[in-house]
């Protein structure tokens, strides 16, 4: 943790970056996002197991971009997110420094190629509990899955916390805010909840990096990560690609090739 603070202090004092986006201690001891602009305040930074939020969500905020070049404290999921944002032309080469803490040290990643190498060296496999959860879901019949999600989505209150927490939901105007025509019903009823959650999942298909912030943000406890994780597996099996691995990859669901197999069309 001290290495992270020292590096942030050094970068701010030298003017290399204008802001360090990291974690600080919030109310009740919980970790929260902090924006350090003064080198003297670098001591407020923390990094431990409670630091789970994907801070890449702030990179797309106009008010944050106006602060100037940033250094971002990056967890493994955040590193994957930055690569996906770069692949979507949202993060320019050299426009950001990533501070990746590990083992009491902190690596400063200034180039996207260095981020790719760091991600490639990390363990990408799901943990045992995550594998078992996904296996139970995949073992369901179509009817059981339908009933499962109907029960889950019935709790949705259409607060859009999942959208706010997701670093890849960065559209300037979301589909749910369009009312001419109105694509998604406003009320939190069965049809509106189904259309909203399925639409968001499909917009993230081939793009989601499995950070899990959507589920952590959901006040109703809906396991949105499970839906996204299943789509990650389908895209990987169908197109042999996975989001957040390269800064130059194409989106699997928006790239057409004449020789694409069409056996999935029924």
Give an overview of the whole structure.
With 266 residues, this protein is of the alpha/beta class. The protein has two domains: 2-120, no CATH class; 128-239, no CATH class. 38% of the residues lie in helices and 11% in strands. The chain contains ten helices and five strands, in the order αββαβαββααααααα. It has helices at residues 2-14, 62-65, 76-87, 112-120, 128-138, 142-153, 161-165, 190-204, 213-217, 224-239; strands spanning 19-25, 31-36, 70-73, 96-102, 105-109. It has a five-stranded mixed beta sheet with strand order 2-1-3-4-5, sandwiched between helices. Helix 3 packs across helix 4 and helix 8 crosses helix 10.
The largest sheet, given as strand count, sense and whether it forms a barrel, is:
5 strands, mixed
**So what's the overall shape?**
globular
Number of domains: 2
Low-confidence stretches: none
Number of strands: 5
* Percent of residues in helices: 25-40%
Query: How much strand content do the residues show?
Result: 5-15%
Output the number of helix runs: 10
Cα gyration radius (Å): 20 Å
Average the pLDDT over all residues and give the rounded result. 92
String of helices and strands? HEEHEHEEHHHHHHH
User: N- to C-terminal separation?
Assistant: 54 Å
Strand order of the largest sheet: 2-1-3-4-5
Alpha-beta classification: alpha/beta
């Amino acid at each position: 943790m001290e290495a992270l603070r020292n590096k942030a202090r050094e970068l701010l004092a030298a003017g290399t970056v204008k802001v360090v986006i990291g974690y600080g201690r919030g109310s009740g001891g919980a970790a929260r996002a902090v924006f350090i602009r003064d080198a003297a305040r670098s001591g407020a930074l923390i990094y431990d197991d409670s630091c789970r939020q994907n801070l890449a969500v702030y990179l797309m905020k106009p008010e944050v971009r106006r602060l100037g070049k940033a250094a971002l404290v990056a967890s493994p999921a955040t590193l994957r997110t930055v690569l996906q944002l770069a692949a979507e032309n949202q993060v320019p080469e050299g426009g950001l420094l990533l501070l990746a803490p590990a083992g009491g040290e902190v690596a400063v990643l200034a180039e996207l190629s260095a981020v790719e190498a760091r991600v490639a060296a990390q363990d990408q496999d799901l943990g045992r509990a995550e594998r078992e959860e996904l296996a139970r879901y995949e073992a369901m019949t179509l009817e059981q899955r339908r009933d499962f999600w109907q029960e889950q989505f019935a709790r949705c209150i259409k607060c859009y916390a999942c959208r706010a927490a997701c670093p890849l939901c960065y559209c300037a105007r979301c589909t749910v805010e369009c009312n001419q025509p109105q694509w998604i019903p406003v009320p939190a009823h069965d049809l509106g909840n189904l259309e909203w959650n399925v639409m968001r999942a499909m917009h993230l298909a081939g793009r989601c990096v499995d950070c899990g912030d959507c589920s952590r943000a959901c006040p109703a406890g809906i396991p949105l990560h499970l839906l996204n994780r299943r789509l990650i597996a389908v895209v990987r099996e169908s197109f042999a690609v996975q989001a957040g691995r390269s800064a130059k990859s194409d989106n699997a669901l928006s790239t057409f090739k004449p020789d694409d197999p069409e056996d999935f069309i029924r």
